Structure formats: C-alpha cells, structure tokens
Amino acid sequence: QVQLVESGGGLVQAGGSVRLSCAASGRTFSSYSVGWFRQAPGKEREFVAAITWGGGSTFYADSVKGRFTISKDNAKNTAYLQMNSLKPEDTAVYYCCAVERRFPSVVANDYDYWGQGTQVTVSS
Q1: Phi then psi for 65, rounded to 5 degrees?
Q2: What gap in Å lies between CA 97 and CA 22, rounded to an integer?
C-alpha cells in the first residue's frame, strides 16, 4: 500500500500560481502512476491531470491544458501539480491519487489510493 498526503493549497488571486505536492509513503512510488482530481462544492469529482509511473507521459483535462503541469519525482516519493494562470473556476478541493500500474486513468474509480485533499481557492 501507499499513503498519500497533499499540501500546498490556499487562497490565491486570479492569475496567480500555486504548486501542490503529493508526498507518498509506503511502497516504492515508482511503481505507481499518479492522478490529480478536484471537486468543487455541489459538483462531481473531475479529472485534472495524470502522469505515468516513470513520469514520461502526462495527460490533462482540456480545462487546464497549458496552465497546469503535473510532474513526479520518484527519488523524493513526491508528485506535484504546478497551477498557473489560475481562474476562479479552479476553486476546489484537489486530491492526488495513485494506482500500481504504468499508465494512469482519467476515471477516479480506477485509482486505489487517495490523499485527504487540499483546498485551493481562487479569488477574482
């Protein structure tokens, strides 16, 4: 098993940047592909970004493409989500998740391990 802990959320103005971290403990992080999802109040959890276990390929939702960057440092057992040009509609609780396979998924139910989430609030 792997345990995930997110950090880095907070309040930011529109147009600003935030970097989220997802620290993993437990089994070897390099065996896991990682995803980031978010959930705004009253809305379903939605896919944001994902990365293969080695970090060689990344995937993004259309709504964040060109603004967000996902990365993974297996030596530090940490994944990141760099969020730039933030908009008020990016406000949500952000979750990192992991599954023990090479390729990630855009479907939340495909992930076995989840962090507790971190709030990101973008003010206009």
Answers
A1: -60, 130
A2: 9
Burial letters for 72-102: b for 16+ Cβ neighbours within 10 Å, e otherwise? bebeebbbbbebeebeeebbbbbbbbbbeee
Do 67 and 83 contact (CB within 8 A), yes or no? yes
Which band of pLDDT confidence, cut at 50, 70 and 90, is reported for residue 52? very high
Q: Can you spell out the DSSP letters for the chain?
A: -EEEEEE--EEEETT--EEEEEEEEES-GGG-EEEEEEE-TTS--EEEEEE-TTS--EEE-TTTTTTEEEEEETTTTEEEEEE-S--GGG-EEEEEEEESSSS--S-GGG--EE---EEEEEE-
Give the residue from 36, 55, 46 showing the smallest Cα distance to 103. 55
> Above 80 in pLDDT, residue 27?
no
Mean pLDDT estimate for the chain? 96
